[in-house]
Protein: Xylose isomerase
Amino acid sequence: DMYEPKPEHKFTFGLWTVGNIGRDPFGEPVRHPLSPVEIVHLLADVGAYGVNFHDNDLIPIDATPADRDRILREFKAALQETGLVVPMATTNLFADPVFKDGAFTSNDPKVRAYALQKTMRAIDLGVECGAKVYVFWGGREGVESDAAKDPQEGLKRYREVINFLCAYVKDQGYDLKFALEPKPNEPRGDIYLATVGHALAFINTLDHPDMVGLNPEVAHETMAGLNFLHGVAQAWDAGKLFHIDLNDQVIGRYDQDFRFGAVNLKAAFFLVRFLENVGYQGSRHFDAHAYRTEDYEGVKTFARGCMRTYLILKEKARRFDGDAEIQALLAEITADDGTMAPFQGGYSRDKADALKAHPFDRVALGRRGLAYERLDQLTNELLLGVR
Ligand code: ASC
Ligand code: MN
Ligand code: MN
Ligand code: MN
Structure:
């Protein structure tokens, strides 16, 4: 089976993804909770490469030190047994009531200090399990009312904590990079660092910008109404695509975290093609969960579906790039007769003067049809399996 997941594909899932019990704001859980060890075995069963976690997916927030040691021992034994690895870890800074007004950006300095303590401990735990990337999803960092918090103050607090934690990682000698995960809203009315673009600009204001990159999520940029591929491309261009959260989402709906490819197959296709063609080496992490209608058989179908769709789209990308008609169209669209070479590249005064004096046939340039309709239809037909 050419669509079978293999370790080199670097497919990972969070403990919280296949472990999602289907609670929502209107309804109780529909699946019984699985232990971390059971989740590791489920993921091994479906062919995943790795498993990621929030600190409290693994160790309950109120665990005793003895609980912690036992759980960690059992979890590591399951990793040993299955060969799964832990490429990424993160902190749960959103579920407990203490974080109702944010963690790093809470108005309460005690909450901010507690969040910092919790994150240092969670970093230690993640590194102990082998994580090389540490994700920051600030789900509660924001407001419902702008009367409550000055957004400049929120950003200042955020920056101070990320700077502190970068210094902590260096001081500990950890081999660990940070990845900020933007989201525009939900669970807060408005969340700080709402999109990839916001986060990229913020990184440049940090003490150690080299240590900090992005973990863009399909659903989150889509919730903001944005083109996910464009955000990913800009993160890649900036050398900041440290990790990626794959799933799917309908614009304008609640935070759905659907199976990869469940909504917008064409967008998923161009995303996979991008990741494969630029040579992205990081995890293909699925931050998604099965529909609330599913039992654990359905959860396995969901997880297998995420990986299988990725691999099918990867094969489609190979065909797109090898399709003579599509490639001929692309060559035609980007054709260059070389006459503009004197005006390209960096600035010189001579070049500027020559370009200012050059006559263009504006009307002829504007009359040219670009055949994007044909290109897009060919793309659809390739995806629909008739070419
Ligand atoms: C994460 C992450 C998210 C959130 C969410 C928690 O670590 O990437 O999008 O937490 O999945 O439910
Ligand atoms: Mn999400
Ligand atoms: Mn995510
Ligand atoms: Mn999520």
In short: The longest helix spans residues 296-322. Residues 217, 219-220, 255, 257, 287 surround manganese (II) ion (ligand 2) (CB under 6 Å). The first strand starts at residue 11 and ends at 14.
